[in-house]
């Protein structure tokens, strides 16, 4: 999706979740279903966000204060936004950089655990190589 949209604000209770609200007419609902992670780009800046719909106002994008500040836009500005569906790596990056600590902290713990598991296998491979040479 590459479209010119008018910026609106999000309600305060949705601000910490990295939500972006777009009318279904402004996004391909098959490509960007509710709750999918996507890379939102405005100008030279990009950020991973969660896409949700909104019933009213086609032609509008609802961003919280932090997103508006990050992209350098104000309410009622008209800007071109690009939306691209995130793959596996994009989902991992989103979870590690999410504003909501209930998402970010378990993701960080998972990545640390994965790398500790990989490191713990090194002695096993060293022992196996020594056994294979005999």
Summarize, please.
This protein has 134 residues and is an alpha/beta fold.
Structural class, by secondary structure, is: alpha/beta
DSSP helix count? 4
How would a textbook summarize the main sheet?
6 strands, mixed, barrel
CATH topology assignment: Barwin-like endoglucanases
Radius of gyration: 20 Å
Count the E strands. Answer: 6
Strand content: 25-35%
What string, H for helix and E for strand, traces the elements in order?
EEEEEHEHHH
CATH class assignment: Mainly Beta
Overall number of domains: 1
Helix content: 25-40%
Low-pLDDT stretches are none
Overview of the molecule:
With 134 residues, the protein is α/β, with parallel strands linked by helices. The chain has a single domain (2-99), classed as Barwin-like endoglucanases. The chain has helices at residues 65-71, 88-97, 101-120, 122-133, and strands at 2-9, 19-22, 36-42, 45-53, 60-63, 78-85. Strands 1-5-2-4-3-6 form a six-stranded mixed beta barrel. Helix 2 (88-97) packs across helix 3. It is elongated, with a radius of gyration of 20 Å. 22% of the residues are buried.
Keyword list:
134 residues, Barwin-like endoglucanases, 4 helices, 30% strand
Secondary structure layout:
Blueprint: E1 2-9, E2 19-22, E3 36-42, E4 45-53, E5 60-63, H1 65-71, E6 78-85, H2 88-97, H3 101-120, H4 122-133
């Amino acid at each position: 999706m590459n479209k010119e949209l008018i910026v609106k604000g999000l309600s305060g209770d949705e601000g910490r979740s990295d939500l972006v609200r777009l009318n279904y007419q402004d996004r391909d609902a098959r490509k960007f279903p509710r709750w999918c992670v996507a890379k939102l780009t405005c100008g030279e800046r990009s950020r991973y966000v969660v896409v949700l719909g909104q019933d009213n106002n086609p032609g509008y994008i609802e961003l919280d204060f932090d997103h508006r500040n990050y992209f350098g836009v104000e309410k009622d500005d008209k800007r071109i936004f690009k939306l691209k569906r995130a793959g596996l790596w994009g989902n991992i990056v989103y979870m590690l950089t999410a504003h909501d600590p209930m998402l970010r902290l378990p993701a960080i713990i998972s990545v640390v655990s994965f790398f500790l598991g990989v490191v713990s296998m090194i002695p096993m491979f060293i022992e196996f190589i020594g056994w294979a040479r005999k």
